[in-house]
Specification:
With 252 residues, this protein is an alpha/beta fold. The protein has 13 helices and eight strands. The chain has one domain. 44% of the residues lie in helices and 12% in strands.
Amino acid sequence: MSGEVEPRRDDRVILGIRFFAGQPEEAVRLGLRGGLVVAPAAPLLSTLEHDGATREALLSSDLALTDSGFMVLLWNLLKQDHIRRISGYEYLMLLLREPELRQPEALFWIMPDRAAQDMAAAWLVCAGFAVKESDFYLAPQYGSSPISDGKLLGILNVRLPRHIIIAVGGGVQERLGHYLKRNLAHRPAIHCTGAAIGFLSGNQVFIPKWADRWMLGWLFRCIAAPRKFIPRYWGALGLVPLMWKYRERLPG
């Protein structure tokens, strides 16, 4: 494999991944069509050179969002470009405005834990969504091994939701989305938006819209939980040599 990918209009190929570079509203329209939507953050992108499972998952996506402000800044500097960031948070807020997601059993959530599920359910009810317990699934600890979840597949193949929102951590959600895309009996829209619902429900630190727009969400998270997020974002500095070396090409 040469690592070369031919870009489409409003796309940029960055590190071998085809990223959408248009407007957020158009990204949502594309996401509604079905397929796998990913929003990889800088810490995940910095692992591309040695993480084959992540590479495979991102390459299989039907829509990749420029969630990483760090990647966007580096790309615009290196290529004298002017693409904008579309965060998973912004995408999810626009997505949840769509009427079709409010239809009965149209939406299915995969959550990391009970507290996150309860807070998301409470927020969704207040926002006018008629959610119930069966609209949620608590993901097990998948770890770094290849993902296989027959229980989840069984539920989804009976429910046949049009939209699946995966709200587990980065690195896992992309591999889980890839697994579902390959194994489900139907073709839903699989939206990997990670902690975005937590920003709305209060399960994560509140990030104002202006802070998300100016790519400062990482700072709010580091202030709220420094032991958790400072090492994570420090590790994302590995994206600098990766972007310098590969630019459009696929690492590894």
